[in-house]
Amino acid sequence: IDFSPSDGWDIQVASYNVPVYQDPNLDQSFQADTFINVTKTFRINQWFGVLIGSQNGAYLSASPPPMQWQNFDYSLALYQVNRFVSIRAGMYWANYNMSGTTDVLGYLPGITLNLVEDTLTLQADYYSGQSSLSGAVVNLQYQATRYFQTYIGVGVPETDSGNEFYGILGFSLSSKGVF
Fold it and tell me: What would the pLDDT profile of 7-35 be if each residue is shown by its tens digit?
């Protein structure tokens, strides 16, 4: 659920890793990771901007305590190449509970391609490092209505990170344009 008031603010409550099927033979901790995301975009002009944000939360599963606080902070330089292509690059910091290895400082480049204006978007981001965050994420997003978006994608692990390929399927409800 995404709340986007005016002036570049975006506030979101999101759950990731929500189990559709729980294999009793696998230890699958960190299920239903639920976060509050807060971002602020500063537009310099129609082509350039800066985005800063933070994602904080915990997992809401039946896993045994103690519950672990997860934190991910980021800052990005934004460049709108044209109305169909935008690129971004910046840094991120994730705490031990989020990265699964140690506190991590890494770089984060990405691109967005508007395949069908205001309807279909391809988005790709890369997270550097050798942690559970490391690798690329590619999503195809469909703007079903002004306030409802669905997406499907894949996570591609960084070489030697110990991560596996994973699928992404989700939806988003947004207030963008309401306020």
Answer: 888 888 887 777 666 667 766 555 678 89
